Amino acid sequence: MRQSSMTRHSTITAREEETAFPAAFAASALPASRPAAMGIGERIHRIALSTAPAATLLPRAIVGAVFLLEGILKFLNPQELGVGRFIKIGIPFPSFFAPFDGVFEIGCGILLMLGLLTRLGAIPMIINMIVAITSSKIPLLLQGGFWKAAHEARLDFSMLLGCIFLLLVGAGPLSLDSLLVARSKNTLPGSRRTEDEN
């Protein structure tokens, strides 16, 4: 009997406190938003972090070099590979999108080769290759058949899969991303705390 009256009393007290301080109860009930509290150093650390082997340098170099070359060729040979090609395959606003695409290919190609913000550099190139496949290789498949389309699309699919691979695994240890990870570890609050404890 005494225990049930004590339980009733504590419940009433808790309700009174909740009505007296509704804002405090609401604030404590909501979990802290981790992404909002995440600093730039932690964001860079997450983007650049990679457990891929050192051999990831090879696909990075190949994929990055092809994008860099193609981006430069869009400016050196605009009729065949730049604006002219975009007009031929039906890309809207070709005089804008051809140089725009060329600049992205050059920039992202350099990022991939250096291993700098590799995952961020891979994302626009994945979009780039999906657009290239849907705008030029799927019509070729419908008109010329599988084998002709497969021959013409081999580089596109290789580049697409290479970019997806780099997005998933990151740059590996032989990259500027690994330097960013090492630097961001020193600036993260948790790492400072552990260093102070040691």
Describe the structure.
The protein folds into 2 domains: 2-29, no CATH class; 52-187, no CATH class. The protein contains 12 helices and no strands. Helices cover 83% and strands 0% of the residues. With 198 residues, the protein is an all-alpha fold.
Summarize this structure as a short list of keywords or feature phrases.
single chain, 198 residues, mainly alpha, 2 domains, 12 helices, disordered C terminus
How is the biggest beta sheet arranged? none
Helices, by number, come to 12
Mean pLDDT: 82
Rg: 27 Å
Shape: elongated
Distance between the termini: 53 Å
Low-confidence parts = 17-33, 192-198
- Beta strands, count: 0
| Count of discrete structural domains | 2
> What's the helix-strand series?
HHHHHHHHHHHH
Strand content: under 5%
What percent of residues adopt helix (DSSP H or I)?
over 70%
Helix-and-strand structural type: mainly alpha
